[in-house]
Amino acid sequence: MTMYMTATLKELTRKRVFLVTLILTLIFIVLFAFGVRELTGPSGLTPISSAERLLNSMVMLVLGLFFSQFLAAFFVLFTTMGTVTGEQESGLLLAVAARPIPRWKLYLAKWLGHAVWIAAYSAVLFVAVVWTVRSQTGIPLLMDEVLRSFGLFLWMPLLLLSLTMLGSVYLPMLGNGICSALLYGFALFSGLIEGVASYGDSHPAVGKFVLLTGLILPTDSVYRRSLYELVGGGDWAGLAISDMGPFSIASVPSNAFLLYSVLYAAVLLLLGCRAFSRKDL
């Protein structure tokens, strides 16, 4: 099984999309660091106040992590949408599945192989954004809160990985990519709608809509809980992100919902293993 995990890693690094993603990610980090320095530093001869500097730091932190989770999600989509059907069409899957190993173990090995790279990529994004804002602005962040946020940030793309892997068993590569991207965008859109609706007396249907999309794909809910933990939970810093328009956190996912996300991923993996075991190669 370890051999298949290693093979998955090597296969991923050979894809051109992997190199392109790394280059674009480096450009994003450089531009983000430049933007943080310009926005939070002194402007000309007029120094900014400490409160304004802190608010700018919070805005850059929220925006940086928002686009980071966006990049992590599309890294998952572009690298895993053809994991099963793509290899089946090329004939590679038939040669690999002929080895004396249960198919469900092969499926899990592929999932773990992709998960390692996805988690590493997401970790680089998270550390780069948080370290950049912290080093240039001095925004107060506690280590235990950062670690909790870090773990949840890594968990978000792994949820999407479980979905795309399952979709790759049933759908062709392009169809799986489109379907997974639409579901991810749907969940992201619902979170933005909830942030906008938090400014007034929102209709009860909005809350039901957000809950339903969170149950279908809990990626955005996990991301919002990660952001909530990073800025101090229920402390004063958490209040700052309640007034950021569509990026606001109107409701914080509970621990029970995080448990649901774990069960959600487990069920998708179980369904994927079962479907792959029965798939006609």
Automatic annotation (TrEMBL):
<feature type="transmembrane region" description="Helical">
    <location>
        <begin position="153"/>
        <end position="174"/>
    </location>
</feature>
<keyword id="KW-0472">Membrane</keyword>
<feature type="transmembrane region" description="Helical">
    <location>
        <begin position="257"/>
        <end position="276"/>
    </location>
</feature>
<keyword id="KW-1133">Transmembrane helix</keyword>
<feature type="transmembrane region" description="Helical">
    <location>
        <begin position="111"/>
        <end position="133"/>
    </location>
</feature>
<protein>
    <submittedName>
        <fullName>ABC transporter permease</fullName>
    </submittedName>
</protein>
<feature type="transmembrane region" description="Helical">
    <location>
        <begin position="57"/>
        <end position="78"/>
    </location>
</feature>
<dbReference type="GO" id="GO:0140359">
    <property type="term" value="F:ABC-type transporter activity"/>
</dbReference>
<keyword id="KW-0812">Transmembrane</keyword>
<dbReference type="Pfam" id="PF12679">
    <property type="entry name" value="ABC2_membrane_2"/>
</dbReference>
<dbReference type="GO" id="GO:0005886">
    <property type="term" value="C:plasma membrane"/>
</dbReference>
<feature type="transmembrane region" description="Helical">
    <location>
        <begin position="181"/>
        <end position="200"/>
    </location>
</feature>
